[in-house]
Specification:
three-stranded antiparallel β-sheet, globular, six-stranded parallel β-sheet, single chain
Length: 256
Amino acid sequence: MKEKISVLNFDTSLISKQDFRQEVESFCKEGKLKSILFLSVPILEEAMASEEYYEKVKRFQFIYPGNEDVLLMHPVEEYKQKGLMMGEGYLEEILEYIEKSEKTLYLVGDSYDKLQAFISYCQQKYSQIKLVGSFVGGEQMDDAILLNDINVTCPDVILTAIAPQLQENWIQDNLDKLNGKVLIGADVLVKKVIADQVEQYERETHGALFNGCVRIKERIARHFIHKMFRASYESFMRLQEEKLGKRRFFVKENKQ
């Protein structure tokens, strides 16, 4: 099952686990490089602040929700009942497919610690995955060295874990220069995996009571962030409505 919805006027796909696996498989079989982005709240906030960045995000060929937070204005529970993924499971499906089909993976990050933590996760859960290269860049990605390394290895999947805006800018600026099958902006998914690993370590180290207190603080902080994001989102969409002179948001567009 697959549905298309509008998130900040970005055409966003909601899809079942089985259909997503088939979609990734088809991407890897086709010749031309495909661009995929997983949305996060920071990406949407940056898009609301910059028209140029907003247009770059819209240029991605396939957009999926990176977590439930980006779907605050939508019936999340209804989507869950239909078996559509909200963010959980996407990365696992990608990595499992790469491992089982013996495809190759190249990682690009903006933090050594973040990339190393993710590589460690992959080694633990997907020990047979073929990682053919990795690159850590700073605020100014060294395009020449990175592009050359990617094009020499010619990976099937290029997965990026780079901060919002820098990630999307780098992908769109270099999409036509890269050899590969699929280029995935997955920073929000990688961060979630690392956060889960840290949480598990803390639970084992500090015990249930400590982690219960941490979770309460996190829920309070998340509620505040949701409230601020909702207000910004609604304000932005009202301005878009006035600008475009039509209503085309918060509405499902089609089903497949």
